[in-house]
Amino acid sequence: MPDRIAPEASERWITNGTFLWGISSVGLLDQAVAIFSGGLLTTAEVRSELARHVGEKAFLAGAVDAIDTGKVRLTALDAVELKAFVKFRSLWQITSADSKDLGEATVITVATQRQIGAVLDDAQARFFMEYHHPGLPLLDTPHVLLYLVEAGLIDMERGWELLCGMRDKGGFNHRFAIRPKGHWMDRRDYPRLRAL
User: Fold this and answer.
1) Cα Rg for the chain, rounded, in angstroms?
2) Could you give the domains of the chain?
3) How far is CA 124 from CA 24, 36, 44, 144, in A?
4) What is the Cα–Cα distance from 10 to 149, expressed in whole angstroms?
5) Sign of the CA dihedral 65, 170, 103, 4?
């Protein structure tokens, strides 16, 4: 029996908890998850990180429920991925099971080992992916909002309101958290959208 289980052909994206945190804080979870036509994966470590904060951020119950009901599918690291994760965990200097970086590390491991796209907002994680795996698709939460704009589900003004809500209500410091509205309206920093 092989160590590695091939992912389903439709599984092309995995997310960490920051994205789920942000979109849940503004009631956008279902719409944002639905644009990933092949589905969206995450790991048990991400679920645990979100569940730990439900008491202080009630909106996170929606993100945990989305995972528990399969709207966002859980995936586990196989034997090959676990070996890669041990090396990555050491490199990232993650020393405890409750580290806020543990979920992110598992997500990056799955993305890089399965050669699928990742939704990551943390600058350190994004830099790691861009530097070490430049060929893999990489999105952040504001980028996903641009896909919702393209699909006609929101407009750029509503996108800006949602980004402000994520920052103010959700405490989510996304890429545009301290930038002026003009940077968002000009779609600064974002390449042309490609199919999800």
Assistant:
1) 16
2) 7-196 (3.40.50.1010)
3) 23, 24, 21, 19
4) 23
5) positive
